[in-house]
TrEMBL record:
This is 2-C-methyl-D-erythritol 2,4-cyclodiphosphate synthase. Residues 3-156 form the 2-C-methyl-D-erythritol 2,4-cyclodiphosphate synthase domain. A divalent metal cation binds at D10, H12, H44. The gene is ispF. Homotrimer. The keyword Chloroplast does not apply. It comes from Idiomarina aquatica. Its EC number is 4.6.1.12. Keywords: Isoprene biosynthesis, Lyase, Metal-binding. It holds the Pfam family YgbB. Involved in the biosynthesis of isopentenyl diphosphate (IPP) and dimethylallyl diphosphate (DMAPP), two major building blocks of isoprenoid compounds. Catalyzes the conversion of 4-diphosphocytidyl-2-C-methyl-D-erythritol 2-phosphate (CDP-ME2P) to 2-C-methyl-D-erythritol 2,4-cyclodiphosphate (ME-CPP) with a corresponding release of cytidine 5-monophosphate (CMP). Pathway: Isoprenoid biosynthesis; isopentenyl diphosphate biosynthesis via DXP pathway; isopentenyl diphosphate from 1-deoxy-D-xylulose 5-phosphate: step 4/6. One of its GO terms (biological process) is isopentenyl diphosphate biosynthetic process, methylerythritol 4-phosphate pathway. 4-CDP-2-C-methyl-D-erythritol 2-phosphate binds at residues 10-12, 36-37, 58-60, 63-67, 102-108, 134-137, 141, 144.
Length: 160
């Protein structure tokens, strides 16, 4: 197969005093996300998309949250590991499109730094990475500010 597509989706609950890290970028916030790892919901969705594209399961299979080695793990290392696994299967990243679903904080100032950071994790150019953010018009768990979600779609290309 020359191209393979992957999808990733992740949710974390607000309610910790950890720093808010999204796409590998620390964002000023009065609250953080509950997680065994650093809670980077964006990198988790992307990692799942990479693993999904090459049919290697999901992030929980490779980095179980019951494993103490991954306590407060830097999610960028998990993403890079998934990209290495995909490379062993003969695929590299084509492009990625990411949607953060959050009622707050305002993401606009951090979109570009996130694209640069994610591109470095994926081993691709930042123009191959698109990050956008949306609210849910105050509807649902995101709108009630109970948590934050992220979707990612990724295209992987066979290395020639
Ligand atoms: Zn997660």
């Amino acid at each position: 197969m020359q191209f393979r597509v992957g999808h990733g989706y992740d949710v974390h609950k607000w309610g910790s005093d950890k720093p808010l890290v999204l796409g590998g970028v620390t964002i000023p916030s009065e609250r953080g996300l509950l997680a065994h790892s650093d809670g980077d919901v964006v990198l988790h969705a992307i990692t799942d998309a990479v693993l999904g594209a090459v049919a290697l399961g999901d992030i929980g299979r490779h980095f179980p949250d019951t494993d103490e080695r991954f306590a407060n793990a830097d999610s960028m290392l998990l993403l890079k590991h998934a990209v290495e696994l995909a490379a062993k299967e003969g695929y590299r990243v084509g492009n990625a499109d990411i949607t953060i679903v959050a009622q707050s904080p305002k993401m606009a100032p951090y979109i570009e730094p996130m694209q640069v950071s994610i591109a470095s994790g994926l081993g691709t150019a930042s123009k191959a990475v698109n990050v956008k953010a949306t609210t849910t018009e105050k509807l649902g768990f995101v709108g009630r500010e109970e948590g934050l979600a992220c979707h990612c779609v990724i295209l992987m290309q066979a290395v020639q």
